[in-house]
TrEMBL record:
Keywords of this entry: Calcium, Membrane, Transmembrane, Transmembrane helix
Domain of life, source organism: Eukaryota
Membrane topology according to the record: Multi-pass membrane protein
TM region positions: 21-44, 64-85, 170-193, 213-229, 250-273
Protein name: EF-hand domain-containing protein
Domain EF-hand: 297-332
Places the protein is found: Membrane
SUPFAM superfamilies per record: EF-hand, Voltage-gated potassium channels
A Pfam family per the record: Ion_trans
Length: 550
């Protein structure tokens, strides 16, 4: 026997200790078989018991059989009374809110009748009360409830439970059917009364009885209508003589058959089927709950194993410690029972080890193992959750580095622009309007503007995400009312045409650049400045110290 089977057997034994003697499978099966044997004995006694010219010795065997079944029934009741106690035996579980426990009360009444009949038999008086003990066969329902976990008796339990649950519905339908037959019996008795039409006008030659026997009184009419409900060759002897004399009564029988057979009786079949399906569903849910309880016991033992696998008692589980624990057979059996493979555990350890340190928390690992139970969807969701957190952290880090890189590039561009603006002061520069306008221009930091634009972009993106989380229905309505693709393309074309026209108009309105001064346009070669491409600075060739201006 494997560790898994021993563990499940231990769970069943612990549960069995809490079950009372009267609720155990062996006692319930004994009482059910005893009820079946009592029923068979009653049948044999009716067929083979001496009826005429009988001697006292002819009843000796049947008296012994009656005494045996009587005291067996009394012992069953006494065991149940001792196990449950008098209050619980007659009232049942008080937490369920019931006043009495009807099956046990009825069984107590049946056994009491059996005992009274046996006492009268001892003085030679036959009461016939022992026939009531035949109804003790209802203990088969209790046996079917106990044996439903076996596949052989599961269908028997569903059928018997469906019949028991539909008794209330069947009683209601039968009451309605009785009321319906009473109503139609009054109508047909009035219309076929001898005061209205003499009975000689009805042709009941092919029927064994005349009209008054079938439709003379309301009770006889109700009995005839019940025969109509059973549809047992009733048309020739019951309905046809009435329809031949009164053709309008054909609609009467049609309406009655539709209301009784097609409506009332068909409802009973539907209720039985629905009750059987409901019982099967409840049985599947109960079985799933029992399996969940067993898995919970295995999980608790697995948690203890993971804690014991932590050799250094640091609260963290390393990959080597996990592999060492998986080398044990009891751990493998528990993992196989839970449906968790070694590959799942290795992947889970890799996902939880976000910092690649080779160790994770024991409690966190056990909680993740508990989530791996069930369908593949649960494992995928767990993996996606861990991947999403890790990728979100990576994206944030990359975004921060990208922002720093953009700031550095903006600073370099600003330095390049500053070098381009740093020119040597020359006496003739005052006549150059381009240089004068450029030097008087206000400088702006591109790095600051870039950081400001990026921060505003983050704020807008966060605002849009919050709006999408808070108002999903509003966004879905807005997306459902989108502009059609044709209209959107036309709007984009018109917007691009307007932008193109505005740019062309602005270009035409720009004034041409002013001409360069003559001293700059045609400067002698000896007075030209030498541009130092590496530094962006100029130096006059005639000598002297250069002066710089920002």
């Amino acid at each position: 026997m494997s560790d898994e089977e021993r563990l499940l057997q231990m769970v069943r034994e612990l549960e069995q200790e809490k079950i009372l003697l009267a609720d155990r499978m062996g006692f319930v099966a004994f009482v059910a078989l005893e009820a079946l044997a009592n029923l068979a004995a009653l049948g044999l006694e009716i067929d083979f018991k001496c009826a005429h010219n009988c001697k006292d010795s002819d009843f000796r065997l049947w008296r012994i059989v009656d005494a045996v079944f009587t005291w067996l029934a009394v012992s069953d009741v006494l065991v149940a009374l001792v196990s449950y106690g008098p209050v619980r035996y007659f009232r049942g579980d008080t937490r369920e809110g019931g006043l009495v426990h009807w099956p046990r009360c009825l069984d107590f009444a049946f056994v009491t009748c059996r005992v009274i009949d046996w006492c009268f038999q001892m003085v030679g008086v036959e009461t016939g009360l022992k026939i009531v003990s035949a109804f003790r066969v209802m203990h088969l329902m209790n046996l079917a409830g106990k044996a439903k976990r076996f596949a052989t008796f599961r269908e028997l339990y569903w059928i018997m439970n469906g019949m028991l649950n539909t008794m209330k519905s069947v009683a209601i339908v039968m009451a309605l059917l009785l009321l319906l037959m009473f109503l139609f019996a009054i109508l047909i008795t009035i219309n076929t009364s001898s005061h209205v039409i003499p009975k000689e006008h009805f042709n009941f030659v092919n029927s064994p009885f005349d009209k008054d026997v079938y439709w003379g009184t309301v009770p006889s009419s109700m009995l005839s209508l019940f025969v109509v409900v059973t549809r047992d060759r009733w048309s020739d002897s019951l309905a046809r003589p009435i329809i031949e004399r009164m053709p309008v009564m054909a609609s009467f029988f049609i309406v009655f058959i539709v209301c009784s057979n097609l409506a009332a009786l068909s409802t009973i079949v539907g209720v039985v089927v629905e009750s059987t399906l409901t019982a099967a569903k409840h049985n599947a849910e109960r079985k799933a709950a029992e399996a969940e309880r067993h898995e919970q016991v295995v999980l608790e033992s697995l948690e203890q194993i993971f804690k014991e696998a932590d050799a250094d008692k640091s609260g963290d589980l390393t990959r080597e410690e996990l592999q060492n624990s998986l080398g044990k057979s009891n751990v493998r059996n528990r993992m196989r029972f839970l449906g968790i493979t070694y590959g799942d555990l290795d992947l889970l350890f890799t996902l939880l080890d976000e910092d690649s340190t080779g160790k994770i928390g024991t409690a966190s690992f056990f909680r993740s193992c508990a989530r791996l139970r069930g369908h593949a969807m649960a494992r995928d969701i767990n993996s996606m959750n861990i991947d999403l957190k890790r990728n979100s952290k990576w994206v944030d880090e990359i975004d921060r580095k990208l922002c720093d890189t953009n700031v550095s590039l903006a600073g370099l561009l600003e330095i390049v622009d500053g070098i381009d603006r740093e020119v040597i002061i020359d006496p003739n520069d005052a006549g150059d309007p381009v240089l004068v306008a450029r030097r008087s221009r206000e400088t702006k930091s591109r790095a600051e503007s870039m950081c400001r634009s990026q921060s505003m972009a983050r704020i807008n993106a966060r605002r849009e995400s919050l709006k999408a989380e808070r108002f999903p229905s509003k966004i879905s309505r807005a997306s459902s009312n989108r502009v059609s693709l044709v209209r959107k393309s036309l709007q984009m074309d018109s917007a691009s045409d307007s932008l193109r026209k505005a740019i062309s108009t602005r270009k035409q309105s720009w004034a041409p650049p002013p001409p360069l001064p003559s001293h700059l346009a045609m400067r002698p070669p000896g007075r030209q400045s030498e541009v130092m491409e590496t530094t962006g600075m100029t130096r006059p060739t005639s000598g002297g110290e250069p002066r710089w201006r920002r």
